[in-house]
Specification:
three-stranded antiparallel β-sheet, elongated, Rossmann fold
Length: about 240
């Protein structure tokens, strides 16, 4: 049976600065239990150090998540190498239902601008995902792969494309989609627009050229969802 419990106040020496401070001590069954060994000032400093370390750990975790997702070529980008209106669009964009589409020829920094935005948002705590159009087509087909591992990866990627706070679709319009890939693209865009999730896209093809790469049935709905729910920045 545990004996009586009572609380006392003792003067102790702080384990950090060695200055005396008043500490509450609990006496239970004749045994003294102390829950603090720091004075108020040192305890406050210790809490601040803990919070700062937590913040550094979180920043490191977010950076690791970004570098695991982003191709190495685009992980560190000098904005001076990017077409200025693309950079301005990235700088002014705020998270919301409206996405961005960067359109222009190769070498003008479309992908760099898009990944620069993704990096900023991931470091701010947003859950982002990014794939190329070619990768999307592959994963659309891999849902019926003979190997379970390939099917599982495909299902994971397509789920992330729908659920991520921000999705990057890189290099749209470089090739004609298969029927399966087109269905997945429509399904992803329909889900994201109806749930007010922004999509960032890059393309060498303008709207008319991209439309010609899509089927009669789904081409117009896909293009409408991309254009209606995004601001398009053309290279001029």
């Amino acid at each position: 049976m545990i004996g009586d419990k009572k609380k006392e106040v003792e003067t102790l020496a702080c384990s950090e600065c060695f200055q005396p401070f008043q500490s509450e001590v609990y006496v239970i069954a004749g045994r003294k239990l102390r829950f603090d060994n720091l004075c108020d000032e040192c305890a406050e400093k210790e809490q601040k150090r803990y919070e700062e370390q937590e913040k550094r750990d979180e920043e490191a975790s977010r950076l690791l998540a970004f570098t695991s997702l982003c191709p190495p070529l685009y992980q560190d980008t000098d904005p001076a190498r990017i077409y200025a209106p693309y950079v301005q669009a990235v700088d002014s964009w705020q998270h919301g239902p409206q996405g961005l589409i960067f359109v222009g020829p190769a070498g003008k920094g479309k992908s760099r601008a898009a990944w620069m935005l993704i990096k900023r948002e991931m470091l701010a705590g947003k859950r982002c995902y990014g794939v190329t159009a070619t990768q999307l087509a592959k994963y659309a087909a891999d849902q019926w792969h003979s190997r379970a591992e390939e099917r599982n990866i495909a299902e994971y990627v397509l789920k992330e494309c729908k659920s991520a706070s921000i999705l990057l679709l890189d290099d749209l319009g470089k090739q004609k989609f298969t029927e399966r890939a087109e269905l997945e693209l429509f399904d992803i865009l329909e889900y994201r627009t109806s749930h007010k999730k922004p999509t960032i896209a890059t393309s060498n093809a303008d709207g008319k050229s991209f439309r010609q790469m899509l089927s009669e049935d789904r081409g117009e709905p896909i293009l409408r969802r991309l254009q209606q729910f995004s601001t398009t920045i053309h290279y001029k």
